C-alpha cells in the first residue's frame, strides 16, 4: 500500500456511507380490475407520481397496467393496492405460444384474455403440464396433422 492510498483513505468522506445501487429499467405488468374511466384514472394516478416511473399504459379490456421505469415491482403493486383499494397482482398470464401444453390442468384459465394462459411457475403444476411419451403417442394417433392417424373418427 502506497503513501497516496493511505492519504486518500484518511480524507475519504464516504467511509461510513452505503453506496446505493441504481435500479435497472424494468417493465412491470399488473392485473387490476378497471370497470370505468374513473377507475382507469384512479389506477393511472396511483403510480404516475411514484419515483422512478417513466411511463404508465393501461389496457382496460384486459385489466392490465404496464409500468415502465426504475422501480421495484413489489413496491408498485403495494402502492397501487393501497391507493386504489382494489385487488392488485402481478400479471399472471403468458402468451399461448410459450407454453408446451396450454390446456393442461393448472395452466388453462377461462378468465385469461384471449391468446394468454396462466403462468406455471409452480413445479407441481409444470409436472402436470408435461405429458409422457405414451400420452403424446395416443393423442397424436387421432390427430388431424398426423398423416398416418386413425381415420375411423
Descriptive report:
The chain has 153 residues and is α+β, with helices and mostly antiparallel strands. 31% of the residues lie in helices and 19% in strands. The chain has 5 helices and 6 strands. The chain has helices at 3-10, 37-48, 73-84, 123-129, 133-141, and strands at residues 26-32, 53-59, 64-69, 88-90, 93-95, 116-118. It has a 4-stranded antiparallel sheet with strand order 2-3-1-4, with helices on one face. The longest helix has 12 residues, at 37-48. It is flat and about 90 Å long.
Quick tags:
single chain; about 150 residues; alpha+beta; two-stranded antiparallel ribbon; 5 helices; about 30% helix
Lay out the secondary structure.
Blueprint: H1 3-10, E1 26-32, H2 37-48, E2 53-59, E3 64-69, H3 73-84, E4 88-90, E5 93-95, E6 116-118, H4 123-129, H5 133-141
Antiparallel strand pairs: 1-3, 1-4, 2-3, 5-6
Helix pairs in contact: 2-3
Strand content: 15-25%
Distance between the termini: 84 Å
Fraction of helical residues: 25-40%
- Summed over residues and divided by their number, the pLDDT gives a mean of 78
* Global geometry: flat
Amino acid at each position: 500500500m502506497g503513501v497516496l492510498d493511505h492519504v486518500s483513505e484518511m480524507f475519504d468522506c464516504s467511509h461510513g456511507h452505503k453506496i446505493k445501487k441504481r435500479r435497472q429499467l424494468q417493465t412491470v405488468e399488473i392485473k387490476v380490475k378497471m370497470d370505468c374511466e374513473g377507475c382507469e384514472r384512479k389506477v393511472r394516478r396511483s403510480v404516475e407520481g411514484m419515483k422512478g416511473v417513466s411511463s404508465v399504459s393501461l389496457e382496460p379490456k384486459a385489466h392490465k397496467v404496464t409500468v415502465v421505469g426504475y422501480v421495484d415491482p413489489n413496491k408498485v403493486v403495494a402502492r397501487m393496492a393501497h391507493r386504489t383499494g382494489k385487488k392488485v397482482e402481478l400479471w399472471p398470464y403468458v402468451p399461448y405460444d410459450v407454453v408446451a401444453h396450454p390446456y393442461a390442468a393448472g395452466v388453462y384459465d377461462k378468465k385469461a384474455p384471449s391468446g394468454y394462459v396462466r403462468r406455471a411457475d409452480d413445479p407441481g403444476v409444470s409436472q402436470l403440464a408435461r405429458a409422457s411419451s405414451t400420452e403424446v403417442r395416443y393423442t397424436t394417433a387421432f390427430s388431424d396433422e398426423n398423416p398416418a392417424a386413425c381415420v375411423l373418427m
